[in-house]
Every structure is written in structure tokens, then in C-alpha cells.
Amino acid sequence: NAKIQARAKRLAEQENQDREVIIELALTLDKTLTPADRPALEKVYAHVMRKHAPKGCWIQADDNTWSQMK
Questions:
Q1: What average pLDDT does the segment 62-69 reach?
Q2: What is the Cα–Cα distance from 57 to 70, expressed in whole angstroms?
Q3: What's the DSSP call for residue 31?
Q4: What is the pTM of this model?
């Protein structure tokens, strides 16, 4: 259904924007971090989100494969 696909796309875009805000905030507030730390910060953020994902949630691994939390 096109309506559901459009909604899913909007939700994914919003989630991506939220993640960017969180990472930018961390880079701004923690004066020990520099823009060069962004990739490491993104990796840590992804790890934390995967670790706390609820059962049944689809997650993306570092190698870009998807799996469902068990």
C-alpha cells in the first residue's frame, strides 16, 4: 500500500534526523569530541540502540545486514 510505504519512509527520515540531532548535541556539549569523532560516536550510538532494542524489532548490524531481535 502506497500510503503505508509513504508513512514508513517519513518515520525513517524522522528517526534519521533525530539521530543526527543527538550526535550533533554530543559533539557540541562534549568539548573533548571533535568532528573527527563522529564515526566512532555513530558506531557507539548504533550499538546502544541495538543493545536496547525490544524483542521482535528489526535491527541493522555494522555490516548493513538486518535481523530481528530475539
A1: 93
A2: 8
A3: T
A4: 0.78
